[in-house]
Design goal:
The complex is a heterodimer of chains A (152) and B (161). Chain A has 152 residues and is mainly α. Chain A has helices spanning 6-29, 35-61, 82-108, 115-139. Chain A is globular, with a radius of gyration of 16 Å. Classes of the chains: A mainly alpha (152), B mainly alpha (161). The A-B interface holds A 39-40, 43, 47, 97, 101-102, 104-105, 107-109, 111, 113-116, 118-123, 125-130, 132-134, 137, 142-151 and B 3, 6-7, 9-10, 13-14, 17-22, 24-25, 28, 77-78, 81-82, 85-86, 89, 128, 132, 135-136, 138-145, 147-152, 154-156, 158-159.
Chain lengths: 152, 161
Amino acid sequence: MTAPPAPVVDAWQAALAAEHAAIFGYGTLGPHLPPARVDQARVFERAHRGLRDTVIAQMNAVGVHPVAAQADYPVPFALTTGPRADRYAQRLEEACAAAWRFVVTSAAEQSQPLTDLRAFAVGALTASAVRAMQWRELLTPATPTVAFPGVG
Amino acid sequence: MPSLTRRRLLAGIGVLAAAAGGAAIGALTASSSDGDSAKRGTPRPPAPLLSALDRERTLLAAVQAAAANAALAGVTGPLVADHSEHEATLSGLLATYPTRSASASASSSIPAPPTSVAALQQAEAAAADEAAAESAAAHGALAAVLASISACEASHAVWLQ
C-alpha cells in the first residue's frame, strides 16, 4: 500500500488531530458532567480512543507519520456549570465530524479511488454526527439533529 | 434509549459504510464519463445526485404525510426540517445542469407513509445506507454533501430508536 496524495494526508492528519483533541476534551469535561451523563461520556471517549488507534495503525501501514497529541487543549469557555460541559462535548463531536467530512471531500477529489479511506471517513463522520445528536438531545431537545453534519 | 442499542447501530453503520465503499471504483469511472461529457459541452448530472434527489423527495413526502398521524406528529418536526434542507440543496446542485437533464429526475411514486416510529426509523436507516453508497459513487464536493446527508439520516435513525 502507498500513502494517499499529500492533500488527503493533510486532511487525514487533521482528522487524527481532532480525535486527539476530543479524547483530551472528554477527559477535561468529565468531572463537570452530572452523574447521569458520565457513562455516556465514557462510552464516547472510548469510541474516540479506538478510532484514534485505528487511524494511527492505518497511517503507519502506509508510511505516514501520525501527528501526535498536543500537551494541552485550551477549553473555549469555563466548564463550571453542567450544561457547558455538555455543550463542549457537542462541540468536540462537531469538530470531529467536520474533520472527517473534509477527508471525504479531499479523497473524493483525487483521480484514484481511495475506496477504503473514503468509507472509513464516512463512518467516522456518521459516528460523530450521532454522538453530537445525543448531546444536542440533552441541550436542545426540540432540535436534536442538523441537516448537514460536519458543515459549519 | 439504551446506549448498547446505539452502539450496535453505530457498528452496523460502520459495516455498511465499508460495504458502500466498494462501489467507488465504478463510480469514479462514471464520474470521469460525466467529466468527458462536460468537456463536450453536454454536462449531465451525476447519477448519485439524481438518485439522491429522487430519494430525498420521496422520503420528504413520506415524512410530511406521516406528520398528519397524531401518533407521529411529535417526532416528525426535525425530520421534515432536515429532509427539506437536503432536497433544497440537491435541487440547487441539479439546477446547475441544463434543464433537459434536470427534468430527468422526476420523483418516483410516493409509497404509503410510515405509520409507526419503528417504520420511520427503518426508513431513515435505509436512506442513510443509500446516501453512503451514493457518496462512495460521487466525485468531489458532491461526495461530501451526500456523506453529510447519510450522517444526518443515521442520526435520525438513532434518535427515533
